[in-house]
Structure formats: C-alpha cells, structure tokens
Amino acid sequence: MTLVTVTTKFLPYSPDMSARSVAVVVTEEIEVPSWGLYELSIPCTVFGAAQADLADPWYDLRLCGEGAAARNTAAIGLAVRTPYGLDDLADADTVIVPSVPDPCVEEDRPLPPDLISALRSAYDAGARMVSLCTGAFALAEAGILDGRRATAHWMHTAQLAERYPKVHVDDSVLYVDDGDVLTSAGLTAGLDLCLHLVRRDHGAHVANQLARRMVVPAHRAGGQAQFIDLSVPGTDDEGLGPVLDWARANLDRPLTVEDLAERAAMSPRTFYRRLQAATGTTPLQWLLNQRLARAQNLLEATDLPIEKIGELTGLGMANNLRHHFLRHVGVSPSAYRRAFPRRVA
To answer: Where's the HTH araC/xylS-type domain (predicted)?
Structure first.
C-alpha cells in the first residue's frame, strides 16, 4: 500500500541552529487517491520550500520508505522516490502522518506493521506526533491516541471512534493540539495544522507571513463542524419515511415529537424508539439537525435576511438561530454565509 508519513526534526529556534529535518515515509500501494496526494503535498510545501528571509535555516525535507525504489501511483501516473527508510524515523523530533490508504479505513485493511512499530518507537523516544486527516488511524493503531482528544476528517470520525474506543474523538474542530500529539481534520485542515506547527516553531509573525505567501488565512474561524452534512441519511423503515419527508417539508411549523408520532400512527414512545434505531439520533435532535441543514442551504443559496431564515426553518428569532449555529456549526450564520457565498449564474 502507498502510505505517506512526514517526520519533522524539531529543535528550539536560534539563529545558528541546524535545519530541521523533515522526512516523508512512503509504502507501496496499487493506487493513491488524489486527495491523498493533496494531503502529502501540504507538509511538503510548508516544510520543503525554503523561506530563508523568514527563518534561516528552515526545514530539510526528506522522503522515507521501505526501500529506495520509486513507488508508482498507478491511477495517477506519478512516482515517488524514497531515499530514506523507516529506520530514519527514529531520530525525528516530529512525525507527521498525512493520511492512510482508503482500504485501511473503509475495509479495515491492516496498516503495515513496520510502520506502526516505527511510529510507536518514535513516540516512545519522545517525538512530537502529528496526523492529518485519516493519518489518525495510524497513530491510533500504534496506541498513541489512547486517552487523548483527537480528530480526523468528519466523514471518518465515527469509524475512528468505533474502531478505537479509547480515543476521545472530536469531529467539530479543524485540529487538536494536545501538546506532544496533534491531529487535524481532512484536506485543507491539514494546512491549518501545519501552519500551527510553524507558529509553534518560529512564532506567529513567521507563520502569518508564510500564510500570506500561500494565499490562505493564517487562522480560520470556526471548526470543521461548519462543513459537516447535518442532514441524516434516509431510513429503510417504511413507517417512518413518509412522516420524515413531511417534517422536512414543514420545518417552519413548531413540530413536536407528539405531532410526528401522531402522523406516523404510533405512540410517542414507539416513534422515539424506532427513529432512534433508524437514524441513531433522538427525534428532537433529528428535527434540530434538519432545521440547521435547511438554514445552511438557505444561507448558501439565497440572500434572505437572517430573521427570515429563522422563520422558514422553525428556529425562530434571529438570536435563536445564531445561538444554535454557534453551538452546533461553530460559526455565526453571517460568517457561514461569507464562507459559502451564493454563486451567481
């Protein structure tokens, strides 16, 4: 399998320090998804491009793997050479795992034992451990995340929590800094965390200037909660489908569990039990998620005032909409609208 791990040599900054070494570990796989290459490119760009006017020395980028041969990513037509081996992780002060192959997440395919052993050895030697996106699965497999708060891409946090119950998974944040162990959400959240590492290593001014050169915000408001699809998947329960469709079409009404149960010709207790079994959430939480999802859609697709959106979604006054947005989405409705502007045809 092709799996990429970045290791960063971290030393307290001083003008005469030697360059921090950054190593990238690649193990063989038939195909690498394009987003895996994107997550690999983030630490390579942040730590591999010299920024001598910001901090000199910068970082020294290295590739590490199971051998020196080029690893071909057949689906995309690229090859990566790895002149360093997994043994070179032993001397790293920071180890970054950008991602793991999809089969290791979706199909529970085992991760390379040599990689897990190398990660554990680096951690036991005192390395600062970092994962981007699904790289958290590798740290979790090595036992590094046990008892710690961690995150990953929101599409995979449920799997991470189920597979590794000792990990305190938080799907609402862009990244988690737990001191010597840091984890990020998926894709561009990896850039947020890498800039955070530069901020820790070199200070805020250097990180801010680097962010300007990369044409990205030095710090993004909110967490990844604003990107999560709050709508609950459909259910195969034929007795629930029609009433849930009706509820989605009438979110502007003050719906109650009793209203929905009556429309489904069930007792409130039976409706509660069947909806929770079918969707994994309570009726009230299901309704709130639907209202928030509808509000997100209206904020993205219309120029309606916040007050009107609160009315159409059943969330009431603008202050109530703002309260729920801040609590469950992580940003205000206005900030969300700025982040997802309406496209004009």
So the answer is: 241-339
Q: Which domain holds residue 245?
A: 241-339
Q: Is 296 in the same domain as 334?
A: yes
> Which residues touch 88 (CB under 8 Å, ≥6 apart)?
7, 23, 62, 64
The number of distinct structural domains making up the chain is 2
CA proximity to 60, closest of 27, 87, 84, 30: 84
**129: Cα within 13 Å, side-chain hemisphere:** 26
Considering the domain boundaries, does residue 345 fall inside one? no
pLDDT in tens, the chain (345 residues): 445 455 554 444 333 334 476 565 665 554 555 666 788 888 888 988 888 888 888 887 777 776 544 454 545 556 666 777 788 878 877 888 888 888 888 887 888 898 899 899 989 988 889 999 999 999 999 999 999 999 999 889 989 999 999 999 988 778 888 888 999 988 888 998 998 888 888 887 888 888 888 888 776 665 565 555 555 445 555 668 888 888 888 999 888 899 898 888 889 889 888 887 777 778 888 888 888 888 888 887 888 999 999 999 999 888 888 888 888 777 788 888 877 666 544
d(CA 321, CA 192): 28
Check whether residue 115 and residue 218 sit in a common domain. yes
CATH number at 158 reads: 3.40.50.880
Residues 63 and 117 in one domain: yes
Domain contains 233? no
3-state helix, strand, coil in the chain (%, to 5): 45, 15, 40
User: Phi and psi (nearest 5°) for 238?
Assistant: -65, -25
- Collapsed DSSP state (helix, strand, coil) of residue 238: coil
Give pTM, 2 decimals.
0.65
The reply to whether 72 and 165 lie within a common domain is yes
